[in-house]
Please model this.
Amino acid sequence: MKMIRKKILVLTLCSVLFLFAACNSGEKDNTSETKKSDESYKFGVVLMTLNSEYWKIQMAGAKDAAEELGVEVSFLGPPEETQFEQQVKMVEDHIATGADALIVAASQPDAMVSVLKNAHTKKIPVVIADADVNFDDKVTFIGTENYDAAKLGGEYLDELLNAGDKVAIIRGQSGSKLHDERTKGFQDVLKDKNIEFIVQDAQSDRVKAVNIMENILTSNPDIKAVFATSDEMALGAYTALENKKATDIHLIGFDGTPDGLQAVQEGKMLANVAQNPYQIGYQSVQSAYKAKKGEEVEKRIDSGVLVITKDNVEEEIKKVNGYLNNMP
Model:
């Protein structure tokens, strides 16, 4: 009888050990599959362009997040921000090549809706960066509150203006929600001063901004200040001010690019409304990753802004150069 009980005990112990080993083996397999799945994520990123330093900083943030999470990111963008039709085709290319998630900064948001709906039907998560798109199925929108940010620029200028002064606004392409919001925010905060605004579209292009600003100065030599809705256009406007020997006119830029910050440092710009493109890129990849993992993501993420003046420009330059030095 003792022998029988020993055999039963041994068999029971072996069964327990087998089950434990099997369970443990299963856990390892699952862990291995998860790791393999994470490493194989490939996110397609389509930006308004890849040529300017602003977008390079955004790429730096996306790249850092991708490295931390062990995913691959592939960047595409047209030569100029106005080439929104090329942007749509680039999103189509990412879908066709099997991107696991999309991050899109649309130059013309309305033109992008159809292709994003197509991505959604294929169960590809879509994160909207920098400029919002009226697309209900997006994971989130990450970017600046452009209207409020532009108000900060107007508030900084307010004390330097008198009632009835003329102010030029050099803005990006007509129909762009982003530039509409910046233009309106700047105008609204100064509405009590009865300012006469002269608004011109330079399509986010530095060279076009030079010509447009020179024409404005020819027709309105009594301009008191200039607000540009991007640094590229602000730098073009400054060239025009130099050409017309009118550098005493206050100039405010928007973006916080290295060139824009340098202009503040050199006294060419009075101030710069600096966005945080690094955080936009970083949090875009992070949000896409969370969506792939089935984790909750806030529907709106504000990346924040900071008004840069001669008092804090050195610190901001050091931070931005650190981002760009990590780019290939």
In short: Confidence is low (pLDDT under 50) at residues 7-38. DSSP finds eleven helices and twelve strands in the chain.
